[in-house]
Design brief:
The chain is of the alpha/beta class. The chain has two domains: about 130 residues, Peroxisomal Thiolase, Chain A, domain 1; about 200 residues, Peroxisomal Thiolase, Chain A, domain 1, CATH 3.40.47. The protein has twelve helices and twelve strands. It has a ten-stranded mixed β-sheet with strand order 3-2-4-7-1-8-12-11-9-10. A two-stranded antiparallel ribbon has the order 5-6. The termini are close together.
Length: about 350
């Protein structure tokens, strides 16, 4: 296996939707930031891969316009996935493993404000049995949260503790669009939004984009004194249907955790768009009590569609670059109620790298 590291990361999350820029306008400054971090130009990028969504954009081949931000003359080696940035990163990591390229820039974008997000995401459900009923994401998450409360797995206070910690940590994150913790009691006093969820239990609707830069071996070492080496990536999927799985669990997350080495992890950036989902993920990943979860504030403080999972990778990598941590795990999810789960282990050394 080739040693591959995350060596660049840029993001933009928008609190206001008025005059929201196009995907090209979102991406061009992010690419410029990645070039500045690495000292590269577009000619140094061996492979490009994007994460986007036709149903979110409301048009076919939504990635095509974004390619204009790259510049395709001379031609570039490009691919795209109908998924989060984390899955685009996975494809790029595999591309580098083939030996065909040594570097990659992956990016993703999403304008959630273009429609009613919680309704739009019903299009990712089973088209025969679920989508015709139009169950929205917040309502499905409410069912999941209620199932856990009724089963005694968690309670509203535990959910509020997650939200309060996230909002407090987000005060140090310049990119978070929701921040400022108060107290658990104050959060519990707020009105219900989708019982048993309150608004602070749900990720805010966010427009935004993000980009990650990957490099192999010595190319990574030339860019960073302390690259964030990818020690392992694992991805599993649970059934799509709500009636075929226990919503208080995420077996695919547990399987992903079993496939990588989480011993010694100090920081976990978990892509949990709802407060109770962090509680599920902590249990399924078997994280120790001393693991710091979502020091960036996590998805509860900003969750641009199709970038939120990749941002978790970037936030974890940044803490390795700075020397704040030596080993971290980043998590990304897609689909309803934690249906799909991807883990990426990052470390300050190449020791123990696996697939």
């Amino acid at each position: 296996m080739r040693d591959v590291a995350v060596v660049g990361f840029a993001q933009r999350q928008m609190a206001e939707f008025d005059g929201s820029p196009t995907c090209v306008e979102l991406l061009v400054p992010l690419f410029a930031e990645c070039y500045e971090q690495t000292g590269w130009t577009r000619r140094d990028i061996g492979f490009w891969c994007s994460g986007s969504s036709d149903y979110l954009a409301g048009r076919s081949f939504s990635f095509v316009q974004a390619v204009d931000a790259i510049g395709v003359i001379p031609p570039v080696n490009e691919s795209h996935v109908e998924m989060d940035l984390a899955w685009a990163m996975y494809e790029a990591w595999l591309k580098i493993q083939t030996g065909e390229v040594d570097t990659a820039l992956v990016y993703a974008f999403g304008k959630s404000s273009a429609g009613v997000l919680r309704r739009t995401l019903a299009l990712q459900l089973d088209p025969y049995t679920m989508t015709p009923l139009w169950p929205d994401t917040v309502s499905l998450a409410g069912l999941q949260a209620r199932a856990g409360i009724d089963a005694g797995v968690w309670d509203e206070r535990a959910m509020a503790e997650v939200a309060n910690r996230s909002l407090t940590d987000a005060e140090k994150n310049e990119y978070a669009i929701r921040k400022g913790g108060s107290s658990v009691e104050e959060l519990l006093a707020k009105p219900m939004y989708a019982d048993p969820l309150r608004k602070h239990d749900c990720a805010p609707v966010t427009d935004g984009a993000a980009a990650l830069v990957l490099a192999a071996g010595d190319k990574a070492r030339k860019v960073r004194d302390r690259p964030a080496w990818i020690g392992g990536i694992s991805h599993y999927i649970d059934p799509m249907s709500m009636g075929t799985r226990d919503l208080t669990r995420a077996p695919s997350a547990a399987r992903a955790a079993a496939a990588v080495d989480l011993d010694g992890v100090e920081v976990a950036e978990l892509h949990a768009p709802f407060s109770h989902q962090e509680l599920i993920l902590r249990r399924e990943l078997g994280l120790a009590d001393d693991v710091r979860v979502n020091p960036s504030g996590g998805a509860l403080t900003g969750n641009p569609m199709f970038s939120g999972g990749g941002i978790r990778v970037g936030e974890a990598a940044a803490r390795i670059w700075s020397g704040e941590t030596s080993k971290a795990v980043a998590h990304a999810t897609s689909g309803p109620a934690l249906q799909q789960n991807l883990l990426c282990v990052l470390g300050s050394t190449t020791e123990g790298t696996t697939n």
